Structures are given as structure tokens and as C-alpha cells.
Please model this.
Amino acid sequence: MNKVPMTKRGETLLREELVDLKANQRPAVIQAIAEAREHGDLKENAEYHAAREQQSFIEGRIKEIEAKLSMAQVIDVTSLPRTGKVVFGATVKLLDLDSDDEIIYQIVGDDEADLKARRISFGSPVAKALIGKLEGDDVGVRTPNGIREYEVLEVSYI
Model:
């Protein structure tokens, strides 16, 4: 079974979601189903069918999270050696050599990726091009608009 890399932050978020699903959402939907059953005929009871659908979603999400956590290889970014090398979990400050814009990304697991928060998946083209590079290296990244050139300005492990 392949291990899936995940930061400590990512693991914490998944565990919090799992607790919420089990402790809050699951009991609430069970209560909603019980109340909907009290209304009688289940064939035409929209509340019942909606609650059952929600229950199915919750149970599926619980299984999905439990599977991800069982396959997780949790990486504590703060304990990584400070080598200046881009690795999973590192935060990278880049200089776009075409526009002179500075961009900061953190390389994270698939579940943690959020482009608005500047967290990119380790499987993304940008992250794949960056991993293994050192501060000062130039990196070419293939994008839909052609190859973008970046310089790795700084690598931090926060």
C-alpha cells in the first residue's frame, strides 16, 4: 500500500473533520431520519430521502478520511533539515523571471492544496518542477501558456 505524504497541519485538519462528522453531523442526521419517519409514508417523504442522502454522504466521507489517515505519511515540516532544498512541505519564494513578480507557495498533499492560500499539491506541475531544486536555481515550468521561468529565492520550513 502506497503511503500518501501529508503535513502535520493536513493531518490535524482531517482529524478535526472526522471528529465533527462522527460527533456532530452523524448524530444530527440520525435524528433527522428518526423525525422524518414519524411523519408517516416514507415513499413520498422528501425530508426522509434528503436525510438518508446526507447520511450516505457522511458515512462515505468518514470512510474516505479514515482510509487517507491510515495511508498517511505525516511529515513535520519544522523538523526537516535546513538545507535550502525544495522538498515536500517546504515554503518556496519564487521570482517570476518574465514579470519580476514574487510568488510564495507551500508544497503540500492533495487534500491540503488551496491555490488561494498559496498551498499547491506535490503532484502539480509547479511543485514537480521545484522539488529537488536549491535556493538560487532557475526552474522552467510547463504551463498551458508555455514555459514559465522562475528563480528559487528562498526555501523555508515553517
